[in-house]
Amino acid sequence: MNSSPLTSPYIGRFAPSPSGPLHMGSLVAAMASYLDAKVHLGTWLLRIEDLDYDRNVEGADLGILASLQRCGMHWDGEATWQSRRLPLYEAALKQLQDDGLVYACGCSRKEIQDSVLQAGGPKGGVAVYPGTCRHGLAPGKAARALRLRVPQGPPAVYGFTDRWAGPQQQDLAGEVGDFIVLRGDGYWAYQLAVVVDDGEQGITHVVRGADLLDSTPRQLYLQDVLGLPHPGFLHVPVVTNGSGEKLSKQTGALAFDTGTSAADLLASALLPAARFLGLDVRADKVDDFWRQAIPAWAQRLARLPEQA
Questions:
Q1: Does domain 87-190 match CATH 3.90.800.10?
Q2: What mean pLDDT comes out for the span 262-285?
Q3: Residue 53 counted as an annotated binding residue
């Protein structure tokens, strides 16, 4: 399967999780998605992905909105919250169930890893789900999650061209296996929720961090079985800490704009984020920053390798 980006109209989005304040890593993703929408004269939506309730931090969602506004990034329309969209996910799951594509799985992570080892896989390697529960739960097993069946053979190979990283390809059967759409704790899996949201909101272009690059084939498959269009994709490099880990709340990323003046915000956040994306911007005011950053993003896109 191949995915090609839609052309017009352009509808993009930024979709942070409220597990902490906006930090440099998430600012880079926000900036790239915002600039891409502006360059293409498109719409930029804001969606708070708050379905992992155990990780949500009270007030972080409103803090993220305030940080974006302080940075001069203003979204179109009203912001949305995934936690207010649960009927959409329930309807999508029912569609998948009616099509016979979902089944109950009773396997723990350890059991899946043990199965990989028994099949000769490397210890600590990627645990491809072996399909243990595809034909029903073993006696005495209780359901821990719901999984989506992936196709076998050539139909399992999903390819797409990323506007930044170039041609990509993944064999869902061989590299992922049947994947979870509803977790054992009752939380909706990211893959299902993001596909349903993007489809319902009419997203035509997804710009996000490269840490989500390998999730894209699963989302393309879900879009196919749910009858949703494929958006175009652009995955920017992720910011890392001193240990080479992706900068995130879990690796100690800190808010960048707490108590800072507009000048400090430029120096400590906006200009470094622009430099990380390869943009030549030298403004000393926030408004001037964006006036320079938008054409600089267009120039950056023009310098990307030809995406055959």
A1: yes
A2: 91
A3: no
